[in-house]
Design brief:
D-Maltodextrin-Binding Protein, domain 2, transcription, Arc Repressor Mutant, subunit A, DNA-binding transcription factor activity, DNA-binding, alpha/beta
């Protein structure tokens, strides 16, 4: 029997779990960050990376103090590994669709402050039209949602967008406006005539994407103009937890105006300045046109894009 060629030997011997670990590493800021995402210990992840590099005979990630980035070989492997990982993820769906072509699963990754009657109407219509399809909705930071779409780990994302990738497709779903709020125990709660200058030095809480270089940059600029304490006391990717910290009195924080209107009316939150020209944030639907969607995913994407096309932009602005 003829001996195996090097590519055939690699295909036979390579541990596919190493590729999965590498994909997480490629989207992380450090080995420690990747270990936390994988729920593994840092030495375990470092060992997996070393084994993969040794097996391929190439350095895949430049990792030095202050530097953690893919090498040229790492970028090539990343592109190939995405295709492999996507194919593995689709196996169950493909087999299920052979048995019953009208079924399928849709995985939506979504920012936590996506509160929109448009989304509710889309989900209702989809379920009525495709009752045998299933779906899951996972809440995560917009940055993580976009990474999931790029890696083809999700069907579509509904989230904020900072920098657009030419590899993905985007449609604006709606626009929301943010304001600053405090809770009942805060010294500014209930005070009329509060000026922006009165906020200076107060502690704050916010979303993890509330940074100058991230999707909530307009909100970060609003906090900076208010001269809140630069040290953010608490952060979360989840709106409910940011809201909880504000109500609990940890500090002043940003929330979408339309989402917390009832909280303000019931005295759980108090809006603070600036009142004029609050920062506007656009929420997008994002998908990967290079993925191979199942029938349910195709139907879901068609449902939401059709709804966007039929709904005037004025009806998709929430103040």
């Amino acid at each position: 029997m003829s001996s195996l060629t090097p590519p055939e030997r690699l295909a036979r011997d390579l541990d596919w779990n190493l590729l999965r670990t590498f994909l997480v590493l490629a989207g992380s800021r450090s080995v420690t960050d990747a270990a936390e995402r994988l729920s593994l210990k840092q030495p375990t992840v470092s060992s997996a990376l070393k084994r993969l590099e040794d097996r391929l005979g190439k350095r895949l990630i430049n990792r030095k103090p202050g530097r953690f980035e893919l090498t040229a070989a790492g970028r090539l492997l990343y592109d190939e590994a995405i295709d492999i990982h996507s194919a593995i993820l689709r196996l169950g769906t493909v087999i299920r669709d052979v048995e019953d072509e009208v079924s399928g699963h849709v995985r939506i990754v979504m920012a936590s402050h996506v509160v929109s009657p448009l989304v509710d109407a889309m989900l209702n219509r989809f379920h009525i039209d495709h009752p045998r399809a299933t779906l899951s909705i996972e809440i995560m930071a917009s940055r993580s949602a976009l990474s999931a779409i790029a890696a083809r780990r999700a069907s579509l994302a509904i989230c904020l967008v900072m920098d657009r990738s030419p590899q993905l497709e985007y449609r604006r779903l709606f626009r929301e406006y943010f304001g600053l709020f405090c809770g009942p125990t805060h010294p500014l709660f209930g005070r009329e005539g509060v000026a922006v200058a009165d906020l200076e030095g107060h502690s704050s809480v916010s979303f993890v994407t509330d940074q100058m270089g991230d999707a909530l940059r307009p909100v970060a600029e609003m906090r900076a103009e208010a001269k809140l304490d630069a040290r953010i006391v608490g952060t979360s990717p989840n709106l409910e937890e940011v809201r909880r910290m504000i109500i609990a009195g940890l500090g002043i924080g940003p929330l979408p105006l339309h989402v917390v209107r009832e909280d303000v009316e019931r005295g759980r939150l108090w809006r603070l300045p600036p009142y004029d020209n609050p920062p506007a944030i656009d929420v997008h639907v994002v998908w990967n046109p290079h993925s191979k969607p199942n029938r349910a995913e195709t139907a879901m994407l068609r449902a939401i894009t059709d709804l966007i096309d039929r709904t005037p932009m004025d009806d998709r602005i929430y103040r």
